[in-house]
Amino acid sequence: MSVAPESPKQLTVRTVPLHDGRPLLAHLPEAAPLAWLRGGEGLVGWGEAARITLPAENGGSGGSGVQRFGAAARWLAEVLARAEVTDALDLPGTGPVVFGGFTFAPDSAGSTLVLPRVVIGRRGDRTWLTTVGDGPGARPADVLREVRPLRPVGRLAWRDGTPDAGQWRAAVAEAVARIRAGALDKVVLAREVHADAPADIDVRTLLARLSRDYPGCYTFSVAGMVGATPELLIRREGDDVTSLVLAGTRARGGTPEEDARLAADLTGSAKDVEEHRYAVDSLRATLTPLCSSIDVPDLPELLRLANVQHLASPVRGTLRPEVSTLDVVAAMHPTAAVGGTPTPTAVDLIRDLEGTDRGRYAGPVGWLDARGNGEWGIALRCAEITGPRARLFAGCGIVAGSDPDAELAEADSKFRVMREALTDGT
Ligand SMILES: C=C(O[C@H]1C=CC=C(C(=O)O)[C@@H]1O)C(=O)O
């Protein structure tokens, strides 16, 4: 477990209104930017007042027996206990805020939470600045310095990941065979592709393109995981929670007629409706004991994004008072949109057939404030950025009626999000 060595004993946290109408991204410096943005609102942050990076849990190589969500909750409680907060706004996202990303698998190291030194947030017409620390550098005038302009990514060299496209197709066929033999109902299989840039990638460039092209998605950047996910695991404000379940996908059409045909094909497809139902059923089963009331629509709606269209079910609930946000996140992960049904069998099959560590892909990503308000998505349509390297991920829900070639094409349409964000001139 690593914690930022400079963590001070006492954390002085101040939130003040900010009268600055510029886009939030315009404030972000290039080094280790943190972001959670949707439609111009959200949070950006930088610097590290405190940080935890968790090791693999028991069972993995080098596993430590630390349960990652529980360890994160304990760390957060300790950090918040040291915070002296002055918060003039008292809104979701004001006061101390941590950004976080958890690994998909328990035996994978790297779940990370960061308390930034500076956060700028926006909700409706209100913008605020939160600083952590007492030094002269914590004054708004010092914090809001000019940042370097965004850098282009440069010419990329693309490589297939492991498994490659052919091997992944075979893995999908194997999964379909196991599902037809009755071993499980659904599994989500993912693959990766890699891109090498000529220099360190300016994550802000990717964030700017993602939030421009996917304004309805959650554009995020947390400790190197960068993407624009359409899938909201949980938003909490007070005791109210909302979630958006996605499963079932078609590409967008090149013409309005083709688009409508693909949409009708999706909503009328028994295979996709079944795939979606597994995801809704697993969410309902997980949320019901945590909520005093829950509202799940009978039928999914259509969610249209620039690259794909999905079957989508918005779910609302009221949390029981004793339940923490990280309890909910831990209980919901992995949903059937990224794991499968039944979950334990699906997760075992993912390990057998993918043969690679997903890292924080398909894990919960988001932010949390000291009152328990927060937004957590599932890290999809994303890439892990390490210096000049990008590792992109995309996965597809496999059920008895899945066709490996169609799934390969669907994964490609999901890769488009990050491929285009990484490509200059798009
Ligand atoms: C696993 C991914 O998407 C999930 C979310 C929505 C629709 C999905 C699908 O139709 O297969 C996937 O379950 C991904 O984008 O990598």
Describe what this molecule looks like in 3D.
The protein is α+β, with helices and mostly antiparallel strands. It has one domain (2-422): Anthranilate synthase (4-Layer Sandwich). The chain has 9 helices and 24 strands. The strands form 2 sheets. Strands 2, 3, 4, 6, 9, 10, 11, 12, 13, 14, 20, 23 and 24 form a 13-stranded mixed sheet that branches. Strands 1, 5, 7, 8, 15, 16, 17, 18, 19, 21 and 22 form an 11-stranded antiparallel sheet that branches. A hairpin with a 2-residue loop joins β13 (218-222) and β14. Bound molecules: the ligand C=C(O[C@H]1C=CC=C(C(=O)O)[C@@H]1O)C(=O)O. The ligand C=C(O[C@H]1C=CC=C(C(=O)O)[C@@H]1O)C(=O)O is lined by residues 188, 190, 231, 246-249, 310, 337-338, 380-381, 394-397, 414.
Characteristic terms for this protein:
single chain; 426 residues; alpha+beta; Anthranilate synthase; 9 helices; 24 strands; globular; binds the ligand C=C(O[C@H]1C=CC=C(C(=O)O)[C@@H]1O)C(=O)O
Low-confidence stretches: none
Oligomer: single chain
What is the radius of gyration? 21 Å
- Total domains, how many? 1
Bound molecules: the ligand C=C(O[C@H]1C=CC=C(C(=O)O)[C@@H]1O)C(=O)O
Question: In CATH terms, what is the fold-level topology?
Answer: Anthranilate synthase
Shape descriptor reads: globular
- Overall number of strands: 24
Helix content: 25-40%
Structural class label: alpha+beta
Q: How many strands, what sense, and barrel or not for the largest sheet?
A: 13 strands, mixed
Strand proportion, as a percent range, falls in 25-35%
Mean pLDDT: 93
